[in-house]
Amino acid sequence: MFWRMTGLSTASPVDAILDKENFKLEELLDEDEIIQECKALNTRLINFLRDRPQVEQLLRYIVEEAPDDAEKKRTFRFPFIACEIFTCEVDIILRALVEDEELMHLLFSFLKPDHSHSTLLAGYFSKVVICLMLRKTGQLVNYVQGHPEIISQLVDLIGITSIMEVLIRLIGADESMYSNYAEAMQWLEDTNVLEMIVDKFSSSDYPEVHANAAEILCAITRYAPPALAAKICSPSFVERLFRHALEDSRPKSVLVHSLSVCISLLDPRDYPETVDGMLESLGGLLKLLDVSSADSILPTTYGKLQPPLESIIVEFISVLLSIGSEAAETQLIRLGALRRVIDLFFEYPFNNFLHHHVENIIVSCLESKRNVLIEHVLNDCNIVGKILEAEKQPTLQSDSTKPTVRSEGKSPPRIGNVGHMTRLANKLIQLGNNNCTILTHLQQNSEWVDWHTNVLLKRNAVENVYQWTCGRPTSLQDRGKDSDDEDFRDRDYDVAALANNLSQAFRYGIYNNDDFGEAQGSIERDDEDVYFDDESAEVVISSLRLGDDQEGGSLFTNSNWFAFEEDRAANDRSIGSLASPSPNSGGTSPSIDEADEIVLGQSDKVVATPAPLPASDSETSQGAAAGDTALPNGPVEELEEDSRQSSSNTDEKPPEQVEWREELDSGTSPETVRTRSLMFETARLN
C-alpha cells in the first residue's frame, strides 16, 4: 500500500501471497495491487522480483508471443504487468537486468529477423529499453556499442513507431537524452546509421516506413550531436536523398517525405553546402511540376482534378527562396520555377495549401533587395496581369484542357483564391509606397488603376472589420467592447448617481431578502468592500439592462431606488410606528403625520424626519437664529404653513422638499445614520 498506518491499514493481498510456502510468479502478476506494492518498495516483493528466474520470466512475457491456445491474461495482462514492473524504475531490478549479459541478450532478441514483431509487444519492448536509457545509460550504451548489429536491426524495423522512438533516443536525436553522456555517443559518428535510414526510401514501399524514416532524419537535424548533424547536411547526403526522391516508379510518399527532410535542413538554419547540393538536383525536381502528361483524375465536389497536385514541391521552393541564397534565387529564375508556380496558383483555384506557399514566394520576391527578383515577378511572371485576368472571370470555367474542371449541370462555383489575390494586390500597393519599381509598374497599368479604384478599395471597405456595424466584432483592438456597451453609452444615465445607488443597494441587501440578517451584518464592513466606481456601475447596468423593457420603469434610472415600490405604498399607506430608536436616543420615537411623508426632489435624496437624536445646544440655537423650527433630532426648515393647513392642501399644492440634517455625536458614524435612514424607509413602506 502507498500509506501504511498502524492499526488502520489492512493486510496487502500481495503479502498474503508471499506468505504462502509455494507460490508462483503468475499469482503475483494476477494480483491488482502488485504495481502499487512495487512503487511502495515492498521489501519482500522486491527481493523476490530481483531474482534472476523472475527477471527472466518477466522478460519472456515481453519479448515472446503467447501460444495460440493461451489464456487472455497470458496474452495481455502478464506482458503489461511485466512491463510496468520494469518501468517502476526500481533500481535493484534494473541493475539485475543490465548487469546480466544473457538477460540483455534475451531482451534484444526481440529485434532478430526471425522473431515475430507484434505492435503490442513492440510497445512494451520500447518502454523497457527507454527506461534503461534514462536510468542505466552507461551500461546500455556499452552493450549496444559491443553489439553493432542492434542498430541495423532497429533500422529494419523502423516502420514500427515504437521501434522508431527507440532509435531516435539511441542515436541522440532527442533533446532530453544524453545530456551527460555526449562522449558515450561519439561511436555513432563512425557508423553508417544515416545511410541505412535514408536507404529505406528506396528499399521499402510502405508509406509508414518512409514517414518514420523522415521523422528520424528531421529529428537528427534538430537535436542530434554536432557530428551527425553536420554529416546529414553534407552535399553527398543531400544528393543521396534527392536521388531516392526522384527515382522513377517510386510511391509518392517517397517524394513527399524526402522533401520534408530537405525542408527541415533549410529551416531555420542556412547551410551553404546543403543548398549547393540541392541546387544540383533542382532541375529534375521541377520537372515534376509539369502535370500535362499525368493521367490520374480525382473527383471533387466542384468537379474534378486532372491530375491532383502535390504542393510539397512548391513548399520546398518557398523555403528555399526564404533563406536568401543568391545562388538559389538565380537558379530558380533560370529554371523558370517562379513562373511555373505562379501559373499553378491560377490553374488550381481550390488548392489552398498551394495558394499559401505561392503567396509566400511572391511576397519574398517583392520584399527582396534584388531588383532582378522584383522585375522577374512583375514582368516575366506578369503577376499583375494574371490577377486582373482572374478578376474578370471570378467563377470556375468549363475548360477540359485545364487541370481543374467544374461539374456539368451545376452552376459554376466562385474560384477559391480571390482572398489570396486580394492580399497580394494590397501587398503590391503597400510595397509600392517604398519601392519605385513596383510603384511605376502599377501606375503605368491603366487597367490596374481602374480595378484598384472601382473594385479593390470597395472590397477592402467591405472586409474591414473595424467598420462593421453588426455589433461583433466592433473592433479587434477593443475585445471588451460590444454593442451593449455602445447602447449603454447612448442612454441618459448619471453614472455617479447609479454608482451611489448600487452601493446602497448592495450594502443593505436589497437583492437578498432571504438573508436580511447577513445583509445587515455586512454594514459593519469598510467602505471599500461595498464601493462602486463608474466602471462597476457600467458593468452591472450592462448585464441587467433588460429591466428597461419591463412595465413600470426600470431600477436603473436616475430616480432614487428606494421609491421603486411607490405604487404599492400608495395603496396601503398608513401611519405606523417608526423603527426602534437609536441606542444613543434617550426616548421613544414620536409618530409622524401625513405632512412628514417622504418627498422626492430633483436632488434624488431621501428626505424625511428620522428617529430622534440628541442635538447639541449650539446647533439648536443656531437653528433658532436662522428662523428654523428646532426639533429633537436637529433643525428642520419651517414650513410656510402649519401642519394642519399643509395637510388640508395636499391635493392642491405639492409638498415642498424637506431636508434632513442631524448632528453626529462622537459615537455616531455616517454608516449608522444611513442605516437609520433605511430602517425608517422600511417602516414606512410596510
UniProtKB/TrEMBL annotation:
Gene3D superfamilies: Leucine-rich Repeat Variant. Residues 650-664 have a biased composition (Basic and acidic residues). One of its GO terms (molecular function) is protein phosphatase binding. Residues 580-591 have a biased composition (Low complexity). Residues 395-417, 574-593, 608-686 are annotated as: Disordered. Residues 395-404 have a biased composition (Polar residues). InterPro entries: ARM-like, ARM-type_fold, SAPS. Belongs to the SAPS family. This is Serine/threonine-protein phosphatase 6 regulatory subunit 2. It comes from Ananas comosus var. bracteatus (red pineapple).
